[in-house]
Design goal:
The chain has 2 domains: about 20-190, Rossmann fold (3-Layer(aba) Sandwich), CATH 3.40.50; about 200-290, no CATH class. About 55% of the residues lie in helices and about 10% in strands. It contains 16 helices and 7 strands. The two termini are about 30 Å apart.
Amino acid sequence: MGIKGFESFGKEHTDRCFQSVTIRNEILVIDGKELLYQIYDACKGRTPFDQFREQAIKFYTNLRTCGIRPVIVFDGFKFGSNHEKVLNQAVKVIGEMQKFIKEEKTDGTNKLPFCRTILAEVNQELGIPFVNGVGDMDSSTAAIANLLGAKVLAKDTQYCVYNLSNGWLPADYFEWDDAEISRVGGITAKLYHIEHFSHQYNIPTNVVSYLDIFFGKNSFFPERVQSFVDQHFKEDDRQSYQRYLEIFFSWMNGNYTTDDDLIERIVDSLGNRDDQPNIQVRLEERLAFFRQPRVPPKFRLKVRMEMMSRQKRY
């Protein structure tokens, strides 16, 4: 998932993309799968499971020190997944776990399934609110953050496209392991907010959602709109995606007027295709997906109940 080139683009243009902030005394919605990797990467050596547990507790302890109340959102089973592939992967993971238990060997073993279990146990023990969703959880995570009036903590650059009321904190800039946390009483971070970002590049906020259409890693569109990208955003064959983005923002600044106009130009660039009407509808739906992330009513109730049941313990 994510937007091609945005990570390097953000590093190159940090001052324009992000604001320096100190996070304290607020709710923080965290992408659970990415938190798993973040804690895993903080461990040394072969990641013994007791060390992973210690790092997970340290992460939550540092958040608590700063008055930060985390809500963890885990991916669920995605609609439209290849069921046979998912089941085969599950069987493989179970086989690795059985081998580990029997032989007590960690070399070559996929430890992440074990670590996810440990993280879930730590969440239970510390009273950390968490929810397991169904379907595309990036969208649900964004919608839950808006529902709770919270920022999102995640590494996935896909969050730069969502209309997040309180913004996105890229995990690479979230200094949760900083020794200065106790003294400062907060965690230093970089904040991306779509309105601030749009203002920096002199474009309407609506324009940002087109990043997924043209450069999304897991999107239906990029290969289908390649002719439009080549015509308007390409200089040479060796061009980096970071450069594509720089040209994209410059071009949008001078050429974007309305969605209707741009979508018509994109569809026209496809040539004579039988699926043109379908692509136009899918374009409009995809843009709305990022601009107005929604939580299904039942899932919204689940989030509120989880918050109420655990907030006293935390």
